[in-house]
Amino acid sequence: MASEPGGFTAYIQHHLTFLTLPHVSHGGFWSWTVHVDSITVSLALGVLFSLWFWLKARKATAGVPGKGQAFVELVLEFVDGQVKDVFHGDRRVLGPLALTVFVWVFLMNFMDLLPVDLIPLIAEKCGLSHFRAVPTADLNMTFAMSITVFLLMIFYSFKAKGFGGYMHELFTAPFGKHPLLWLPNFALNLVEMLSKPVSLAMRLFGNMYAGELVFILIAGLFSAGGIALYSLGLVGYAVWSIFHILIISIQAFIFMVLTVVYISMAHDHH
Questions:
Q1: Catalytic residue (one of 3, 50, 129, 199)
Q2: 140 tagged catalytic
Q3: In the chain, where are the structural domains located?
Q4: Torsion region of 226: left, alpha or beta (phi above 0 gives left; psi -120 to 50 gives alpha)
Q5: Could you confirm whether 203 is annotated as catalytic?
Q6: Is 92 one of the catalytic residues?
Q7: Can you tell me the distance from the alpha carbon of 16 to that of 129, in angstroms, rounded to the nearest whole number?
Q8: Which residue windows are transmembrane per the record (predicted)?
Q9: Closest by alpha carbon to 104, among 70, 124, 75, 61?
Q10: The one catalytic residue among 203, 223, 249, 264
């Protein structure tokens, strides 16, 4: 595809363009759009994850587990252990939430390991001009997840401390209860609150966008001409894929752990 009219630049732009709904996209300062590809892939992976774990839970046995059940139990114990180390309260909600975040983000990240031209080629055969297969390389998707975590933080802050207790904490921590310190306290707490979803979203997006771009650049070597560049592209693609497995796993783990940490902090009192 890199040899198409427009050359390598057009090839990169093609792979970095989202599939959108034209009738909801408009120009101007308040322009907005719907990224159909990110929504479709993330929903499909979410349904796949839920169905997979539901089937394994339904067929679980008390005896020697099969490979599928053993893998699911391993993931459950790993996530529950991380939650238990950070949060010492009731884990009936936070445990499943952490499991959902970890597996779902990992599956969305894993889409980056598919051949760069595979999904766009299938989409093109279906009459779609563009299709990006990595939802976590979409800033809108990572911010949607981080804002959800932010709203959960606010909810559990009010639930654990009450309205009065949480307001008291916002205006009196960390410098004290003097009225002159209320505004500085609130400003610092506001900055701390807003920095959490921003950093959570930008960290995941930055790593996955960079990884996707590296795959696209390496794939461009395949059609650049010459056996040397083609061989270099094959080696580079294989090496980067192996290294990227570590990246997508770490990013899913970090997003899950920070979600648990932020909600755990919402339960703490100054």
A1: 199
A2: no
A3: 34-267
A4: left
A5: yes
A6: no
A7: 12
A8: 29-55, 93-111, 139-158, 209-232, 238-263
A9: 75
A10: 203
